[in-house]
Write a structure and sequence with these properties.
The chain is built from 5 helices and 7 strands; from the N terminus they run E-H-H-H-E-E-E-H-E-H-E-E. By secondary structure, the protein is α+β, with helices and mostly antiparallel strands. Strands 1-2-3-4-5-7-6 form a 7-stranded mixed β-sheet. A hairpin with a 2-residue loop joins strand 6 and strand 7. 28% of the residues are buried.
Length: 146
């Protein structure tokens, strides 16, 4: 598994990984209509303007995960469900930390992600509600100390 900087030619593969991961990860957290609206086209459109802030994890030639970061805040870290547990997420997180990542948020009820971040030394700072996909949802903010 290697981590590299994303390129514009990765957008299609990034969008496919995002859709698969999103649906698998958030099936018990978000409603079916919200999950259905987050398809490859949705993510490809979003990544068209943000791929230059992304790192990708590759297994051989296959892109199996990615991380999007803005100003030291991790916006997304998704792994293809078939690649979970193989070290790609940890490599992405470590590289982001080396590039200055100090905060991230996730759904309060995303217990697998919370265990992952805590195992890697991230600490929950606070829990809060905010609007997401038309409803108030519970989130947690994590921080990484220096």
């Amino acid at each position: 598994m290697i981590v590299r900087v994303a390129g514009a030619d990765d957008i299609s593969a990034l969008a496919a990984v995002a859709e698969r991961s999103y649906r698998a990860t958030f099936a018990g957290i978000l409603e079916a209509d919200v999950l259905a609206s987050r398809d490859e086209g949705f993510f490809a459109e979003r990544f068209a303007s943000s791929w230059d802030r992304m790192l990708v994890a590759c297994s051989g030639e296959a892109l199996v995960g990615f991380l999007l970061m803005t100003d030291g805040h991790i916006d997304m870290l998704f792994m293809d469900p078939t690649a979970v547990g193989r070290g790609g997420g940890a490599l992405l997180l470590k590289e982001a930390e080396q590039q200055g990542a100090r905060s991230l948020e996730c759904f309060r009820d995303n217990h697998a992600a919370r265990r992952f971040y805590e195992r890697h030394g991230w600490h929950m700072e606070r829990e809060y509600e905010r609007e997401f996909a038309g409803k108030s949802r519970s989130f947690v903010l994590y921080a990484k100390k220096g």
